[in-house]
Specification:
The protein is an alpha/beta fold and 389 residues long. The protein has 2 domains: 3-54 and 300-388, Aspartate Aminotransferase, domain 1, CATH 3.90.1150.10; 58-295, Aspartate Aminotransferase, domain 2. Helix content is 37%, strand content 19%. The protein has 12 helices and 17 strands. Helix 4 runs parallel beside helix 9. The two termini are 29 Å apart. The mean pLDDT is 97. Bound molecules: pyridoxal-5'-phosphate. The site of pyridoxal-5'-phosphate has 14 residues, from helix 5. Residues 102-104, 107, 136-138, 189, 193-194, 222, 224-225, 250 line the site of pyridoxal-5'-phosphate.
Length: 389
């Protein structure tokens, strides 16, 4: 490990504060390091490995496609992209899909669609997008501008203009901010992930959706982290009884390969024309074949299971010694420790063989959707003890 760490530190750009763990293999929700030590994986690659590591159905889908053709570009038809798009539209009622490779790219696509729609309908001054304080939408210069956390902005000015932020759970503030200039769209995460795993209030999200619809302002929900079953619904907006105009997603939909999607609803389905947008790797057949194998298994039974495991975590950790509160939705959970920092809790858990994440001052849990109940119980026990110690 020390040799690997040294090579990593010498040759890899210095952008990640890694935990001192080298993963060499895994199966399901168990990861194995170079010494053979096993860990329960409560992060699933930051909400990516929806069905854990080495999921046989996904592996078969991607290897079958690799054996046929791994990439063709978007100049030719290949089957997995359209198949996945059809499945996404059938399951959501959205009308068309643009595929990219990441969450940031899915959001870039949404922003371009919103700006073109608004420019054509309301004129060239209508380009502003309202996002929420504490949000996270990606790390490109434009999605950083959308991200409502100033500390991400400071070193990278000037960012793309045309983004303003409003307070989460404060409809009056959203309206005040939106009415300060012509506004094209409001973009929000129903469950803010990087912002500390905070689910927005239902009344607020409904209020924003109603206000936006009444003013022909587009509603974009960023489902990069909270989507694809993680919230206990297929997409988190479905828990709120609203219908977004644009939904962006990535992470879990690829099951471990890079895949992002921007879903376009009725109003915006025909905004793009040929040449307006594109991506060399977008709709890559291997990634999309894997995506079909993931999305087709996020059914009612799995979602009920996610909600049951979520209820278990809330019950086991809510009010436990050393825990101030438990937040989030589904298998997207934030734990605010009382006596230790989140990082201290995570370090203790690593020692005991459980891998968790952090988000701001919280310990963040994003386990695989199919984590076995027994494995989950063991991990929760370790986390509970780490907070109590
Ligand atoms: N949007 C949300 C809500 C996210 O949580 C993330 C990543 O954590 C992104 C966008 C950016 O996704 P990516 O890292 O795939 O570009």
């Amino acid at each position: 490990m020390s040799e690997l760490k040294q090579i990593d530190q010498t040759y890899i750009a210095n952008t990640y504060a890694r935990f001192p763990v080298e993963i060499v293999s895994g199966k399901g929700s168990i990861l194995v390091d170079e010494t053979g030590k096993e860990y329960i994986d409560m992060g699933s690659g930051i909400a990516v490995n929806a069905f854990g590591v080495g999921d046989e159905v996904w592996k078969q889908a991607v290897t079958e496609q690799i054996n046929l053709v791994q990439h063709t570009s978007n100049l030719y038809y290949t089957a997995p992209g359209p198949r996945l798009a059809k499945l996404l539209c059938e399951k959501t009622g959205m009308k068309k899909v643009f595929f990219g490779n990441s969450g940031a790219e899915a959001n870039e696509c949404a922003i371009k669609v919103a700006r073109k729609y608004a420019a054509e309908k309301k004129g060239p001054d209508c380009f502003t997008i309202v996002t929420l304080w504490n949000s996270f939408h990606g790390r490109t210069i434009t999605t950083l501008a959308a991200t409502g956390q100033n500390h991400y902005h400071e070193l990278f000015q000037p960012l793309t203009p045309g983004f303003v932020h409003a307070k989460a759970n404060d409809l009056d503030d959203v309206i005040r901010v939106a009415e300060a200039q012509p506004t094209a769209a409001v973009m929000l995460e129903c469950v803010q992930g990087e912002g500390g795993v905070v689910a927005l209030d239902e009344d607020f999200v409904k209020g924003v959706a109603q206000y936006a619809a009444a003013h022909d302002i587009l509603l974009i929900t960023d489902e990069v982290q909270c989507g694809n079953g993680r919230s206990g619904a297929l997409y988190a907006y479905m828990n709120y009884g609203v219908q977004p105009d644009i939904v962006t997603t990535a992470k879990g939909i690829g099951g471990g390969l890079p895949l992002g999607a921007c879903l376009l609803g009725e109003k915006v389905q025909n905004v793009f024309g040929p040449g307006d947008h594109g991506s060399t790797f977008g709709a890559n057949p291997v990634c999309c074949a894997g995506g079909v194998s993931i999305l087709s298994r996020i059914d009612d039974a799995l979602l009920a299971d996610v909600r049951e495991k979520s209820a278990y975590i809330f019950k086991a950790l809510g009010g436990a010694p050393g825990i101030k509160c438990v937040t989030g939705m589904g298998l997207m959970i934030g734990i605010l420790p009382e006596k230790k920092t989140a990082r201290e809790v995570v370090d203790l858990c690593i020692e005991k063989g459980v891998l968790c994440l952090t988000a701001k001052d919280r310990v963040r849990l994003l386990p695989a959707l199919n984590i076995p109940m027994e494995t989950l119980k063991k991990a929760v026990e370790v986390i509970r003890n780490a907070c109590a110690e």
